[in-house]
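Risk register update: the risk of archive-format incompatibility is retired. Evidence:
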Amino acid sequence: WPLVRECHMLNGEIDFILKCVAPDLSGFQNFLTEELLKADNVATVKTSLVIRCAKDAPGLPFEVLEARLTRS
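Archived output:
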């Protein structure tokens, strides 16, 4: 599924969280109804839409990356 940019397995009530990027709401709805909900291993879906990005810092902070590299 190209719209799915991230997928994380969680503990608790929710099994997975997906970060999807769609061209528009219609494309997202089509993905939900025609692909995700039709998957054999998907029973239910709950959605939330981002209304504003408060912070977007992909990757690792340099200090974390450096610490990981020096440990190995």
